[in-house]
Write a structure and sequence with these properties.
The protein is built from 2 helices and 6 strands, in the order E-E-E-H-E-E-E-H. It is α+β, with helices and mostly antiparallel strands. The strands form 2 sheets. It has a 4-stranded antiparallel β-sheet. The structure holds zinc ion. Zinc ion binds at residues 6, 8-9, 60, 63-64, 66.
């Protein structure tokens, strides 16, 4: 069974309690009317699909119902770390430390 750590509940819980909520750290343009249609389309629809480390948003649907971010390896499906929303994206060295 895949366990995911909720950074708010501070517990490892079963994957069935969570739902994927998209790619993390996507910034909404400050003034949408000031950007081109292509830039707006990119913001709305284009997401990365990396092979390896991916930054994701998850929601603890059957728990605290809060959104948080996770670093997951798409090759192994392993959650390397989770962290609260609003916190900066972890650096490569922080991710490497968490992998150990
Ligand atoms: Zn929770």
């Amino acid at each position: 069974m895949l366990l995911i750590r909720c950074p708010y509940c501070e517990q490892d819980r079963a994957e069935v309690e969570f739902a994927y909520a998209g790619e993390a750290h996507i910034e909404r343009p400050g003034d949408p009317s000031a950007i081109s249609d292509a830039e707006w389309e990119s913001f709305l629809f284009l997401r990365s699909n990396p092979r390896g480390i991916h930054f994701e948003r998850w929601v603890h649907v059957h728990g605290c119902a809060r959104h948080f971010n996770a670093v997951r390896d798409t090759l192994s499906d392993k959650f390397i770390m989770t962290y609260r929303s609003g916190i900066q994206r972890p650096t490569k060295s922080e991710i490497r430390r968490a992998e150990k």
